[in-house]
Amino acid sequence: MKQHPLCTDPDHGPTIMDLPIAEGLKTEWAELQTRRHFFGRAGKMLGWAAMASLSGERIFTGDAHAANVVPSAQSVRLPHFAPKAKRAIYLFMSGGPPQMDLLDYKPNLAQLYDKDVPDSVRGAQQLTGMTAGQARFPIAPSHWAFKQYGKTGTWVSDLLPYTARMVDDLTIIKSTNTEAINHEPAIMLLNTGNMNSGKPCLGAWLSYGLGSMNDNLPTFVVLLSKTNPKENNQPVSSRLWSSGFLSSEYAGVAMRSSGDPVLYLSDPKGVNRDVRRKMLDAVNEINRQTSQELGDPETNSRISQYEMAYRMQTSVPELTDTSREPQSTWDLYGPDAKEPGTYAYNCLMARRMAERGVRFIQVYKRGWDVHADVTGMLPVLCQETDRATYALVTDLKRRGLLDDTLVIWGGEFGRTVYSQGGLTPENYGRDHHPRCFTTWMAGGGVRPGITFGETDDYSYNVVKDPVPVRDFNATVLHCLGIDHNKLTYKFQGLDQKLTGTTPASVVTNLLA
Amino acid sequence: MIRLRGIKLVWAASFLVSIALLLLPFVFKLDGKTHADWQQFLGRFHPLVVHLPIGLILLVPLLELAGKYRPAMLEAAMFVLSLSVLSCLLALVLGYLLAYGSGDAGAGVARHMWGGIALTIGVLACALLRGASGGPRGFYPYMLVCVLVLLAWTAHQGGSLNHGNNYLTEYLPAPLKRLGVGTVRAEASAFPDSFYAKHIHPIFDANCVVCHGAQKVKGGLRLDTYDRAMRGGEDGAVIIPEKPERSILLQRITLPPDHKKFMPSEGKPPLKPEEIAWIQAWILQGASPEMKSLAGIYVHEEEALPQVPDYSGKMKEIEQTARSAGVTLVPVSRNLGDGLILNTVDAGQKFGDAQLAGLVRFAPYIVEAQLGRTSVTDGCFPTLAKFTHLRALHLEETAVTGAGLSSLTQLPQLSYLNLSGTQVTEAAIAPLKTMKNMRHLYLYNTPAERQQP
């Protein structure tokens, strides 16, 4: 028998991966190999092999990733059109900020203090278990005064003196609305387009579609801000930055709010960088063998993640070394920015990552779930976030980064105009409210200085230009050069996409 | 003798029918008004029946040709030809009922009508000539060719009435379009930049003009030009400036879609809410032909980017060069004409003037150069002057001082220049002020910024 030209060892012939054939064939092979492995190499038996090929789908393997080989960004060929924004920074206000206390000004509510929200306004809406049992739904007007700011004359609450300074740069959306009334489904919906976990989030879709802009830092980073124990902090979990059915290399890399930003990144005592390198090389070699043997693409993801972690050993210390920031930075962000893990520090990190080619940075600030003691908690929350948010936008603007960076600010839903629990002239609580909430965007791709959408006099229902979550996400993708209908991934028999199966549309009125 | 008289009788009858057909449009004028419902009821079978003569007439030449090999086909040809005459007459009558009953008028309707009449007479003549010569001989074959040409033209006119004038040419491959095949859309307005010309007219054009245009004028209304739209139809003006609530046009497009008078009619898709809002605002604000924008209405328009020369054949070479320089050259989008972005974030300080010079042969394809935090110096400016398609240039946190910055004035498309964190001075950036397209100049943390008042 004639030996194959590439075959040097008769026992270990050339693998498919070595052959000069189309990449698609190799991935197909990898897919088959995974199945074959599952049958414990009993696949040599004709019956098993036939069954394996008949099964077609992954019904036996169970592992979603195993059989899916993700094409590279190059073969996806994105962006679909020239984008205005190359990267995005998402300031996520977890918990649900009360829109009528911050940006959705409702002057007439003052006269309606302690009156019930009319049934005609509430309609047949299902409430959360926390207020459904209330005998009354007394209107709680905002405790704070509003003033007009900027050339646009936008009304802003006294709670946000810094945000007020930049209203002319913002695209405020008062008509964002969601279908979920509780935190987990609502925050999942906003991040992944689906209330159930398991779908890739916005950042993962962006990494998958657009690829990385740099070699030394992840494409998608999540920054968790330190929690204030006095605040009502809802949990955020890695489900929110998961890559779902996409390869795990597209998942967000979460940086911790205290200690090492990334765990186990620094070398243990007695292990220097050379030893680490040697160890990595050995592990990679074993992984490569496993990959050749099993063809599981997730093994390759693991190799690339180890390599990324190794490079991050030098890139992250450089990233977090703020010693060369000019004094003007500290003047802008305020003293909190010097303390790692604070929201202000994370905003500064977000800018530094934007400069270093990170595609998507999501900063989580928890604690907005103000069911009670609004007048006590809101000033704290705003004090923690208002200045830094303004600083980030302003810093990006003066450094020329805002032109191609999209900044997004918002939570997972809004809050009710009626008081949860007792209403007094001094204090009130607010329950979850999905029908309307206020978000804003700024920078690359969106039209500055506008307020879009209107809510009724009670900030209860959207009366003009509603922006459902799917449209919101479609618009974000558009700013980054992506047609949300074209960025799809076949999984479970469906061309999955961030905006889901309900038709979504880009809100062109928001676009610059 | 009897046979001869029979033939004469057929000729005489045919002559009379032809005269009747020719007089029909003058007796029952297509006045653009609707008439009896039964006429419309029968008339709507026209689009169905009309395919009968088309098929039959096309069959005739095939049978004549086949007759050379099988003589029986020749007999069949005469039979089919006779059927063609009858079906033509039927289609013609139904067609006329459709136009007359539903009040169709216009140049396209007229062309289709006269085509149908001429075709019917032509087919009749064919049958007579073939009957007289007893086979495919004499003048008959020439007449048949004329009939076929006429058939194609008439059928096309009919199709255009239903689908619009440029239905066939709309998706014509671009090279053919450039050869002048297809129609050029007439200028609808004297003010091509107006809100009407850019946003209102295209709505009419896409949704209304098939029935309310030059080809078909339902209800006497034409919406293919501004003047005609304002003139209105048989019920008077349909657009009353500043009075959207009284404008029939707006009323009809905002009825419930299943309403008898809803427009666009006959199951065509309704206008989008956004389009209705534009029309409403346009009428409310005076229905002006020249107003460029409307208060409270924002229409997002993507600006077309200047395109770079074709580099699709050099992709491999570009990738190799970039890799060896430790940088990436990334397409702006899947449309390669949008150009490449030079990304040096991984190379950092290893990328300097020499590396930049190494990329100069790809300069015309690069629209954005991200040179921030690299080791480029003032020596980069003569090289950068060759990047003729550059739109954005990042030089933040580099050692440039601005000497030679004036060579950037040779870059006509440069609209973004970031010099933040450099040592540029007010004097150094002075030449940039002459650049017409320069919209974003960043000088944060520079001597130039501090020198500014």
Describe the protein:
The complex is a heterodimer of chains A (about 500) and B (about 450). With about 500 residues, chain A is of the alpha/beta class. Chain A folds into two domains: about 1-60, no CATH class; about 75-235 and about 255-260 and about 325-510, Alkaline Phosphatase, subunit A (3-Layer(aba) Sandwich). Chain A contains 14 helices and 17 strands. Chain A has helices spanning about 25-40, 45-55, 75, 100, 120, 160-165, 185-190, 200-210, 275-295, 295-320, 325-335, 345-355, 375-400, 470-480, and strands at about 85-95, 145-150, 155, 170-175, 220-225, 255, 360-365, 405-410, 415-420, 430-435, 435-445, 450, 455, 460-465, 465-470, 490, 495. In chain A, strands 1, 4, 5, 6, 7, 8, 11, 12 and 15 form a nine-stranded mixed beta sheet that branches. A two-stranded antiparallel ribbon of chain A has the order 2-3. In chain A, strands 9-10 form a two-stranded antiparallel ribbon. The longest helix of chain A has 25 residues, at about 375-400. Chain A is globular and about 75 Å long. The termini of chain A are far apart. Residues about 40-75 of chain A have low confidence and may be disordered. The mean pLDDT of chain B is about 90. In chain B, helix 5 runs antiparallel to helix 6 and helix 9 packs across helix 12 (about 275-285). Chain B has about 450 residues and is mainly alpha-helical. Chain B starts with a helix and ends with a helix. Chain B has a six-stranded mixed beta sheet, covered by helices on one side. Chain B contains 17 helices and six strands. At the A-B interface, loops of A face loops of B.
